């Protein structure tokens, strides 16, 4: 198998484990010991993603809103209620 260059959306999806097709594919990549890499720009996007998720949760918490977020399982605040 050729080496794989990852984009941040795939890394995030693999971390969340919400999409069983993506998860299964990456479990296979790991099992096969396929070389995997990403660019510095991709790595730079990951903290931005985490910061955005935290801002959504904080806003919902402060204003006592119910959050509507497809990634509700990954939001860091326990007092956030989901729509």
Kindly describe this structure:
By secondary structure, the chain is of the alpha/beta class. The protein has one domain (4-82). Helices cover 53% and strands 12% of the residues. The protein has 3 helices and 4 strands, in the order βααβαββ. It has helices at 8-16, 20-31, 40-62, and strands spanning 4-6, 36-38, 66-67, 81-82. The strands form 2 sheets. Strands 1-2 form a two-stranded parallel ribbon. The longest helix is centred in the middle third of the chain and has 23 residues, at 40-62. It is elongated. The mean pLDDT is 77.
Structural class: alpha/beta
Average residue-wise pLDDT: 77
Shape: elongated
Number of individual domains:
1
Helix content: 40-55%
C-alpha end-to-end distance: 43 Å
How many β-strand stretches? 4
How do you describe this structure in short?
Helices cover 53% and strands 12% of the residues.
Record keyword descriptors for this entry.
elongated, two-stranded parallel sheet, two-stranded parallel ribbon, 53% helix, alpha/beta, 83 residues
Layout of secondary structure:
Blueprint: E1 4-6, H1 8-16, H2 20-31, E2 36-38, H3 40-62, E3 66-67, E4 81-82
